[in-house]
Amino acid sequence: MKLNELTPAAGSRGKQKRVGRGEGSGHGGQSCRGMNGAKARSGYRRKIGFEGGQMPIQRRLPKFGFTNPTRVEYKGINVAALQTLAETLKIEKIDTAVLRDAGFAGKNQLIKILGNGEITAKVEVTANAFSASAIAKIEAAGGKTAIEE
């Protein structure tokens, strides 16, 4: 086999369709664009949400709801997760950096400790917010809570 003998696989390269080059080409006349309409014109681009002239769904449905611009969103982490973290890493101080390194939250997320589950480890927890039940459970186990600024 030589380089000049290389050819594409049979059927992999089709003949280019040359449209608008006269009736003899088989693609003259309307140039494979069908009859009249927006799609037959040059520069056609369908608008986003266009439904063929029918009133689009985003205009048929009413506006509703409200997005609070001052909402503060927290990533919730339960005290059960703190218990497993304290057992596996054998640490007594858990702060937001430790929780982010362990994969519980992203680097820009605020962290709130929630009270689901049980905790027996005596740990000092620092987070952006705590629920009342989480504070009660951590302090009942002999630990401390601190809010990070």
Short description:
With 149 residues, the chain is an alpha/beta fold. The chain has helices at residues 57-60, 79-89, 96-101, 132-140; strands at residues 74-78, 93-94, 110-114, 124-127, 129-130, 144-147.
Give a verbal description of the structure:
By secondary structure, this protein is of the alpha/beta class. 20% of the residues lie in helices and 15% in strands. It contains 4 helices and 6 strands, in the order H-E-H-E-H-E-E-E-H-E. The chain has helices at 57-60, 79-89, 96-101, 132-140; strands spanning 74-78, 93-94, 110-114, 124-127, 129-130, 144-147. The strands form 2 sheets. The protein has a 3-stranded parallel sheet with strand order 1-3-5. Strands 2-4-6 form a 3-stranded parallel sheet. The protein is elongated and about 90 Å long.
